[in-house]
Amino acid sequence: MKIITAVIKPFRLDEVKEALKGAGVAGITVTEVQGFGRQAGHTEVYRGTEYQVDFVPKVRLELIVDEADVDRLVEVITNAARTGKIGDGKIWVTEAERLIRIRTGEQGHDAI
Amino acid sequence: MKIITAVIKPFRLDEVKEALKGAGVAGITVTEVQGFGRQAGHTEVYRGTEYQVDFVPKVRLELIVDEADVDRLVEVITNAARTGKIGDGKIWVTEAERLIRIRTGEQGHDAI
Amino acid sequence: MKIITAVIKPFRLDEVKEALKGAGVAGITVTEVQGFGRQAGHTEVYRGTEYQVDFVPKVRLELIVDEADVDRLVEVITNAARTGKIGDGKIWVTEAERLIRIRTGEQGHDAI
Amino acid sequence: MEGNIAWVLISTALVLFMTPGLAFFYGGMVRSKNFLAMLMQNFFAIGLLAVVWTVVGYSLAFGSAGDGGWIGNLDFLGMKDVGLGDGTVLPPILFATFQMTFAIITPALITGATADRLKFAGYAVLIGVWSILVYSPVAHWAFAGGWVAEMGALDFAGGLVVHINAGAAAIAVLLVIGARKGHGKEPMPPHALPWTLMGTGILWFGWFGFNAGSALAADGIAAQALFNTLVAPAAAMLGWLIVEKVKGKHVTTLGAASGAVAGMVAITPCAGFVGSMAAVIIGFAAGIICYLALFIKEAAKLDDALDVIAVHLVGGIFGSVALGLFADASINGIVEHEGLFLGGGADLLIDQIVASVAVFAFSLIVTYVIAKAIDATMGLRVDEETEQVGLDQVLHAETAYNNL
Amino acid sequence: MEGNIAWVLISTALVLFMTPGLAFFYGGMVRSKNFLAMLMQNFFAIGLLAVVWTVVGYSLAFGSAGDGGWIGNLDFLGMKDVGLGDGTVLPPILFATFQMTFAIITPALITGATADRLKFAGYAVLIGVWSILVYSPVAHWAFAGGWVAEMGALDFAGGLVVHINAGAAAIAVLLVIGARKGHGKEPMPPHALPWTLMGTGILWFGWFGFNAGSALAADGIAAQALFNTLVAPAAAMLGWLIVEKVKGKHVTTLGAASGAVAGMVAITPCAGFVGSMAAVIIGFAAGIICYLALFIKEAAKLDDALDVIAVHLVGGIFGSVALGLFADASINGIVEHEGLFLGGGADLLIDQIVASVAVFAFSLIVTYVIAKAIDATMGLRVDEETEQVGLDQVLHAETAYNNL
Amino acid sequence: MEGNIAWVLISTALVLFMTPGLAFFYGGMVRSKNFLAMLMQNFFAIGLLAVVWTVVGYSLAFGSAGDGGWIGNLDFLGMKDVGLGDGTVLPPILFATFQMTFAIITPALITGATADRLKFAGYAVLIGVWSILVYSPVAHWAFAGGWVAEMGALDFAGGLVVHINAGAAAIAVLLVIGARKGHGKEPMPPHALPWTLMGTGILWFGWFGFNAGSALAADGIAAQALFNTLVAPAAAMLGWLIVEKVKGKHVTTLGAASGAVAGMVAITPCAGFVGSMAAVIIGFAAGIICYLALFIKEAAKLDDALDVIAVHLVGGIFGSVALGLFADASINGIVEHEGLFLGGGADLLIDQIVASVAVFAFSLIVTYVIAKAIDATMGLRVDEETEQVGLDQVLHAETAYNNL
Ligand SMILES: Nc1ncnc2c1ncn2[C@@H]1O[C@H](COP(=O)(O)OP(=O)(O)O)[C@@H](O)[C@H]1O
Ligand SMILES: Nc1ncnc2c1ncn2[C@@H]1O[C@H](COP(=O)(O)OP(=O)(O)O)[C@@H](O)[C@H]1O
Ligand SMILES: Nc1ncnc2c1ncn2[C@@H]1O[C@H](COP(=O)(O)OP(=O)(O)O)[C@@H](O)[C@H]1O
Fold first, then answer.
1. Per-residue pLDDT tens for F165-208?
2. E404 in a structural domain
């Protein structure tokens, strides 16, 4: 099994979630995060002083999927998350050695 | 070394933490997350309009452990987190190639 | 490519971020987390009752980097995050099999 | 007289406090990226409109009071000759200040409809001009012995001048700026209802000054208005929650808050003119009617973000018309024709309807022209990217909540 | 008279504002999943009880005032004949409204004890019935010249009627519904104390209306009551924090807030009857005593979630009894027997104790019967899953904070 | 008289409500780890200073009133002989309570400068001693017919006694405790501006009692003061935002709030002494001047965390001096020498400057000595680790927001 991790723009979350649902994904874990990257942060003002805020709000998705689904789902996420503007985010894939469903104890593919 | 990641129901966090302490675990990193899965979300109402909230609050735990402890700890988490109802969550295991303790620079097993 | 994950003290975040910028890092994803570890939690008081809070606020950083940069960056983070007091946190390294930039579809090294 | 002055002094403070209350009532309902922008619009309304009112608005509204006409004059520009009184009358400067607080909150009500997409500069010009071209005339009509008052229509504390006026203006602005991006597609749940409930508490508290203060005296009429301002919103809350329960499965805190505010709106024109049980009935009905009026925005395809139409426009119309049914000369001697249900015939009812229609039409048309002109020149709506990122960051270079 | 009317008008608004204040005082202490439910219970109390009071409660409490009896009559149903007055007296409708705000907040106080587990429908019935069967009678006894007043016991602003009454009711309901799941095992820390502090500020502000407004006149007694309502809670804050520091290592913001509220409670029955230094002493002692009373809930194995027993019941009893020690005829001519410490003997002290016990027992028993009946029929407590998931989501289909 | 009493009763409540308002105004601007500590400092100020004022402060300030001297006497210790009045005068106990609320908020203002690093115990001693050694004398000088008043300087509601006094004290304490760790290196953005805006709303609301209540009567002067307290802050908000826009690209909500508060401060000494357009001008200028005064703290290398110098000290000096330009005998007969711009010559202007300098110097020096003494003995600043972890956890064993 593989873990797909995606960091996307918050206002695309709904779209991405729906697309993944449509693609048959059964589970996602989502975290609010702050991203630093090429997308410039922004300036904030505090009583006449400007300061740079480097971090931009992002959303991090994590999905455990069968190896066979990885390419397809990466595609789905990419399409749904893309705005074409800088800061759209990244997707990365890692290996999950085991997966267990707590409720049933099912393992591996059955636990997805 | 292995990384055990577990997504559980928030109100089981205390129990799981105590169980892991009891099992000799020295460190855990915990994140508030939102989960989407088989457990249906719920309906919210906004001035006469209903809308579906797909995400359910969950807690994500991350533990770096010795390979030898993985099975035992997965068991511990499973037992402490299980309610038997849908949405109890998942546990997955990945490989950690290196681990460093910032304070001392210790590496690997010693850094756990 | 490798993923460096670091859990550090929140008030070192600025320093670590600046150090990583200085070291040429192009992207970081940051999450607020709660840590449990050797660093004792603290006692809180609620109307005459004391209770133990085991979790300590921490910040979790995630960077996807070229394998070649790992050692250097681990060093950079360690130096910037270290206070020498218990609770400085951990760094761990895992393998990323693929990396995709959503905006362009670039993959691997180019997507960092 | 001292007692009357004391009551109008504190009532003025109470009404001013309502605008921050409104800011939070609305602010809790928007998404967090637009929270500060909502607060800003409301607080800024105090800053700008207090000055506009001082310089010109009060004079245009209350100059040549009692002339049965359409607008005041310029006698009181810059509060000239608006003095401290001689101790036997309510100090004119106090009356002007009390009225100022109404002139401030009325355009601020519009911000609920236009949430999440107004350009700040355009908004500033909008409310400044609106205050002069719409608010002052309408206040003259109904509060300063203008044609509406002369015709015989009644408005105790602003059913016409405040709620219908602002509600119609909201529609006009909506017609110009259109819907939020994503409206109807993505849910846009309130980011933090506790702020909305806090705002509700402050609004209710302040509304005692709004309604009972409009008696301009510490007397029995003020007392009845106070009673009505407690009981009508309470009954409206029950009305709203009952429909909510019947139509869905839940009673919501936002429903409780919305119902209460609907009741406050509806009782506003009636507060010092109707008896105790009439207030209960008006409130209860308002809760139901305003709930049902939520569908209007969909029917009219207007993205009235926080339901200014259902609550203020419909609530204001209902209250103004209900006064034609329940007005009670035994409560207030000013009532010449009692309401229909009290055997006073349809005279007052007709006046109330005419006045409501007139204020609605006038505000709708003039506001539309103003909004259109601003939109065509300096722009009244932010661009798409600003809307996505959030107004707080782009317009005000601030973020409501900073954790890292 | 105008001045008196002005003061009671604004006092009424102040007391009404306390219920939202209480909502947030409590709401900050619960877990975030139950925050809205707590707000809802309190705001809904306004909605329901204003109507109940209007229709029947006021009449049952204040009908046949001065009869030395147990309950009022039905003369004022629906505020019949509760008029505007003739300008020489406080408008009867104003008095009824002022009293209404007390009838609203009293049952709302119970929600602190029962936090995190009440079924909304059961709660609604509970406070509605309670208002009629418990609040109105007790108000008649002490505020409307009923047997307690005739006996000679004093209650300036509600030590008996509000605090002992609500505190005893809280115990009764706790006996019926039991403890929260996980109580005693998992810590349930306040989810956001800033709301609690905001609530404290509002409560203190509103309490000036509660206590000094109970003079029903803008006079020296009101002034002394106002002073006492500032100083006693201040001294109570110090008392509480000192014990906290002695027993633990820290002084807490929740301690400051709790101490202040304890002082407000204790000074309530005494406010217009005791002198300045007596207020300091009563307050200071209340801070210490209410802190020490925190252990009662453990001893009694009652999961009094937000310490209604320690703060309202014990604070109310202490204040009511302390009046028997400090009542001062030079402050208020109504005081016939001065307090023990002022050389007035034990007469008043005994009356105060008898009255406290009577109110306690009556409220405890009748509330228990009501709560038991509701629990047996429609249910008064949510099921386990609802408790785990949180009341906000399950009962109200809402979430307090929405970030995604 | 009843009307006057009613107005001062409610004004007292309003001013007391300002301290919680201030707590949140400041609290929204600090980092979340120090939020509760900020709230605690402000709420505790109520607890401690109400008692100090009762026991000794009032007597030192208002004993031997009208003696043209430097300090009061001990006649009123423990509010001895501070009675309820006879119904023909403002009850002395009411006047003492009204003044108490000023004595409470003044030292609380300092907490904005010293945010994020004060030791609680040191702070408690600081404000207790300060209240006696600095506040009471200065109040005597200007409010109780002491030498400042006898000289001819005017201070309607506390430009000298409250704002210059607290502002100078803030500098003194800053000189002793130094800057926050990381000051100038890391940004320390406000953790939650909505709280600050809520605080602003409460402050504005309460300030009506502060300024218009200082008329001590419900009369035309109070009415003018009320008007001025609405319009000057409004104009100041505009002034501040205009400079902000000119110098940066954005208008901020914190700017709107800060500008408004600057206007409240500046109009405080003038409120019942100047006319309507003068208030607009004073307010507008204050908004600009206080914004520009933000640079002082950098020039002076003082880490004045939340800008007490720019807002309170500079605003207070500006307002006090502006009174020498705009004082208007037609508004208030107490004005003997009208302001320079009204043709009254420079007499008053000079008195105002002398008084401002005197209060500034006295407060600066005495406060410095007190702070230095505390710092040398029990310590006035927390250690480095406490500062990093946050005051809430270490000092108060609490956390503002608990999610897990
Ligand atoms: N090397 C990286 N490691 C971890 N997260 C990254 C990395 N690069 C980018 N990110 C995450 O992706 C987000 C978007 O990246 P950014 O460089 O701004 O633009 P783009 O997505 O167009 O490449 C960042 O805000 C950050 O959260
Ligand atoms: N494939 C998955 N990838 C990542 N997270 C998942 C996945 N499936 C489930 N989860 C997480 O586990 C939680 C529980 O899963 P769910 O399907 O609701 O019930 P169950 O735990 O009984 O299988 C989800 O809310 C989500 O956070
Ligand atoms: N085995 C572990 N797995 C995951 N996270 C850990 C582990 N050990 C420690 N951590 C994280 O690192 C933080 C610091 O660890 P701690 O043991 O307190 O001190 P130190 O960093 O000095 O070793 C913890 O709060 C936790 O977030």
1. 999 999 999 999 999 999 988 889 999 999 999 999 999 999 99
2. no
User: Could you tell me the pLDDT band of residue A32, with boundaries at 50, 70 and 90?
Assistant: very high
User: Domain for residue D404, yes or no?
Assistant: no
Q: Which numbered ligand comes closest to the C-alpha of A1?
A: 2
In a domain, F223, yes or no: yes
Nearest Cα neighbor of D271 from D204, D340, D213 is D213
| Residue E404 with chain A: CB contacts under 8 Å | 10, 13, 30, 32, 59
As given in the structure block, the two tokens for residue D333 are 């001697």
d(CA E85, CA E83): 6
Give the span between the Cα atoms of D96 and F198, in whole angstroms. 26
For residue C66, give the ligand nearest its CA: 1
Chain C positions in Cβ-Cβ contact with residue D404 (cut-off 8 Å): 10, 13, 30, 32, 59
- Residue in chain E closest to C48 (alpha carbons) equals E244
Give E295 to chain C, closest Cα distance, Å.
9
C112 lines ligand 1 (CB under 6 A): yes
**Does D404 have pLDDT greater than 70?**
no
The ligand 2 atom nearest the CA atom of A29? 27
Which residues form the domain of D282?
A: 2-396
pTM above 0.80, yes or no: yes
Rounded Cα distance, E290 and E267, in Å: 13
H/E stretch holding C33 = strand C28-36
Asked if residue D66 has pLDDT above 70, the reply is: yes
Q: Is residue F402 part of a domain?
A: no
Q: Which residues contact F238 (CB under 8 A, 6 or more apart)?
A: D47, D48, D51, F259, F284, F287
Query: From the CB of C85, is ligand 1 less than 6 Å away?
Result: no
CATH number, residue E116:
1.10.3430.10
Q: Is C38 in the pocket of ligand 3 (CB under 6 A)?
A: yes
**β-strand partners of C6:** C61, C91
Determine which of E384, E387, E388, E401 to mutate to test the interface with B (most B C-beta atoms within 10 Å): E388
How many domains does chain D contain in total?
Answer: 1
| Ligand in closest contact with the CA of B81 | 2
Delineate the domains of chain A, giving CATH numbers in brackets. Answer: 2-111 (3.30.70.120)
Residues from chain A contacting residue B94 (CB–CB below 8 Å): 3, 94-97
Rounded to the nearest angstrom, the distance between the alpha carbon of A77 and the centre of ligand 2 is 18
Query: What whole-number distance in Å separates Cα of residue D193 and Cα of residue D365?
Result: 34
Which residues in E have their CB inside 8 Å of a CB on B? 182, 186, 388, 393, 397-399, 404
Q: ipTM value of the model?
A: 0.97
Q: Which atom of ligand 3 is nearest to the CA of B3?
A: 3
Alpha carbons B35 and A102: distance in angstroms, whole number: 14
